[in-house]
Amino acid sequence: MSQMKTNGTQTRSFGQRMNALWEYANPVKFMALSGKVLPWIVGLCALTLIPGLIWGFFFTPEAANFGNSVKIIYVHVPSATMAINIWVMMLVTSLIWLIRRHHVSALAAKAAALIGMTMTLIALITGAVWGQPMWGTYWAWDPRLTSFLILFLFYLGYMALWAAIENPDTAADLTSVLCVVGSVFALLSRYAVNFWNQGLHQGASLSMDKEEHVSNVYWQPLVMAIIGFGLLFVTLLLIRTRTEIRRRRLHALMARERMSDA
Amino acid sequence: MLDLGKYADAILWSWGLTLLLLAGLTLMSLRASRKAKADLKAAEERRKNG
Amino acid sequence: MIALLIRDMRLAMRAGGGFGLGLAFFLIVTTLVPFGVGPDAEILARIAPGILWVGALLACLLSLDRIFQLDFEDGSLDLLATSPIPLEGIVAIKALAHWLVTGLPLTLAAPFFGALMHLESPGFSWMFVTLLLGTPALSMIGAFGAALTVGLKRGGLLMSLLVLPLYIPSLIFGAEAATRGMAGFNANAPLLMMAGITAGSIALLPFAAAAALRVNLR
Questions:
Q1: C-alpha to C-alpha distance for C159 and C150, rounded to whole angstroms
Q2: Each residue of A218-242: b (16+ CB within 10 Å) or e?
Q3: Which of A186, A253, C7, C43 is deepest in the core (most CB within 10 A)?
Q4: Which residue of A167, A175, A188 to mutate against C (max C Cβ within 10 Å)?
Q5: Are A90 and A96 in contact (CB under 8 A)?
Q6: Burial of A85 (0-12, 13-18, 19+ CB in 10 A)
Q7: ipTM of the shown complex
Q8: pLDDT of A20 over the 60 cut
């Protein structure tokens, strides 16, 4: 900044602004910033998630062909949305780690995995519980349910690989490679499963298609719940990433202690 | 209490399990965070003193 | 490169893991299934392509950890990594060697084992074709999984957890193509998709596997 002032330029080029963004990939800066932002995000999360869920649970009417079971949508759809988006986020952070080698990025991917797995599990459980009254069975090999089961397996493998490798940098590298390759195969599985069995799932509930669009009464609390789930993810992600950074620092300190002891 | 009709079981189960899982995840994250913070603090102290 | 291929195949065969073990495992799986579901010929014939595919997949998985593990332990992988052949090429050759000692025998044996499952006569050639086009992908994906877990003490179980989900697309398209072909439907679409996955795996996965190996050799 001081250099820029001596140059007398106040406007920063795009490249410089991008560089400023990357600065937050520095663990110390990240800790400082995330510590400041965290309370605000927690507040926002509480402000959307709790009213959204209460609205969805208590103040929505019955749907013509679903009856009251439509209330399940307020936990099913947000968790399913998050389950997929978290994997995408992990793919992006893995790529950032592989290309730019920012430690925060790798640790954020690690921190996100358990949240993503929980979201996938919630989507699967609520789907199964909903399936029983709607389709008459807990489990159908419907493409979307099957894809989520496969996604769950991918999360499991990813986390198992993290847990198995001791050296943190090796683990970050290998899990990132696995995440990238896994994403391609997860996408392939999605198409394969679609091909294999045309399902009973209703179309995307948020699609812009008029026919499929869920009416406003259901849609508004649903959007609120989705935003709430998203903010919950950001909150947990920040907390868990901060934990991972601290653990990493601790790991380094311990290693140094052992070195000086020896 | 509102009447959930014939789907009461399904609704309560799915909401209950969802909230349980999310609460569990949050508690786990918070506990891990607290532990990491304490451990790191202890290690930093040791480094300063020893 | 050919010398490496021959060396790898010889090692695999001498370890008794190659031809023998994979095929024996495949035979046992196809024998056990009728015990589980009953000897009804109609049911067996219907599930035969799926069982044969799953059996081939598991038999393939069985010998994967041997692709890099021995060379990693005795240090020859380090030597190979510094040799003039790029690591990507070494990975591809090792996957090819794995295919020649497991995938190919499985493909050749599948029609005969299919007879145990009351597979009907058009099924023999369909099993052969789908496995011939599909098993190279299994070996290549497996080599990637083996490269990821090569540094670990007990990587076998972890590797199956990593590799099996990656096998899903090949399995779905392969078994679907065999089933459709047997029933006399047009099986071009799944067959082409599977061949595409195989081609894509062979083209791209050596790079990912080599990257993983480099990390593990660091």
A1: 9
A2: beebbebbbbbbbbbbbbbbbbbbb
A3: A186
A4: A188
A5: no
A6: middle
A7: 0.88
A8: no
